[in-house]
Amino acid sequence: MKILKTIAFLVFATMSTLPTMGQDLLARQAPIDRTMKAVDSVALHRLIEIESYDSPSADLYDDWDNLHAHSKVTELPDSFRISLKNFCMPTTSRVLTSNFGPRWHRQHKGLDIKVYIGDTIRAAFDGKVRVVRYEGRGYGKYVVIRHDNGLETYYAHMSKQLVEEDQEVRAGDPIGLGGNTGRSTGSHLHFETRLCGVALNPALLFDFRNQDVVDDSYLFRKSSYQRESIAATRLRGVNAISFGSNDTDDVEMANAAPAASYAQETRFHKVKKGETLYSIARHRGTTVQAIMKLNHLKKNSKLRPGQILKFN
């Protein structure tokens, strides 16, 4: 009986001390929890900052529209730095056929780059496909991608699209094939770069002749954008370094970058039996008039099998 009482007393004493021990354990743990909470908070803020830096597009755009090429225009910031790192040239072609700016009494809002039907077109940066559509009187088969750096890029007149809306893409992923669809007079890629829905001159960012971007980043500034755009066209456009104005700032900006003369590669076509100027022009993505001018032909000139023609 005495042994049972002793055991009962020990059990009671042990049970009585458990809450105190638990409280001591919690007390010792509390500073650790507060420290870990602070560490987690700092890590979380850093993660948010990193994501915000890597994907500033989240702060620039209020909507996500799969139906319309041109999403709702949001207010352009006074200045905005666009990262050009981890890029891929959309095409390996070095031949530009039309500049950004006024053309045929309207504004041409991109660059035209010579490509052939079936050439691979690639995403310029990481991002998400917003639009994959067909516009018979305009872009033809086109793709719009919103990128993590804040830009949206447009790829138009393609013969085939290889991506779907809302698809994540990486820089360099194939997104389509070169073509001549929509409002187009020959196979080429119409390439646009837009910020907050406003078209920017791609020559500010890309140097197609050198197959490179102009720098690690581009600082867009409302106050100087127009002047910089003109200078970029003179440096990297169809007729690079052909100064025709007295704008000293433009000339100084253009001279600040290395200039070069680029020879366009001449391409030839061997005439096959039954071919006509029209069929050759369509196959080669050019015009009958261009072939006639290059080869000093007349409308009634007869083609013979084996004849060699220049087509660009």
Question: Explain this structure to me?
Answer:
This protein is α+β, with helices and mostly antiparallel strands and 312 residues long. The protein contains 6 helices and 19 strands. Strands 2, 5, 7, 8, 9, 11, 13 and 14 form an 8-stranded antiparallel β-sheet that branches. Strands 6-12-10 form a 3-stranded antiparallel β-sheet, with no helix packed on it. A two-stranded antiparallel sheet has the order 1-17. Strand 7 and strand 8 form a beta hairpin. The longest helix has 53 residues. The radius of gyration is 31 Å and the shape is elongated. The relative contact order is 0.12.
Provide a concise account of the structure shown.
The chain is 30% helix and 26% strand. With 312 residues, it is an alpha+beta fold.
Number of strands: 19
Strand content: 25-35%
Could you tell me how far the N terminus lies from the C terminus, measured between alpha carbons in angstroms?
114 Å
Helix percent band:
25-40%
* H and E string: HHEEEEEEEEEEEEEEEEEHHEHHE
The 3D shape can be described as: elongated
What would the average pLDDT be, to the nearest integer? Answer: 79
- SS summary, helix count: 6
Radius of gyration: 31 Å
Low-confidence segments: 47-53, 241-265
The biggest sheet, with number of strands, parallel, antiparallel or mixed sense and barrel status, is: 8 strands, antiparallel
Oligomer: single chain
The SS-based structural class is: alpha+beta
Search tags:
312 residues; alpha+beta; 8-stranded antiparallel sheet; 3-stranded antiparallel sheet
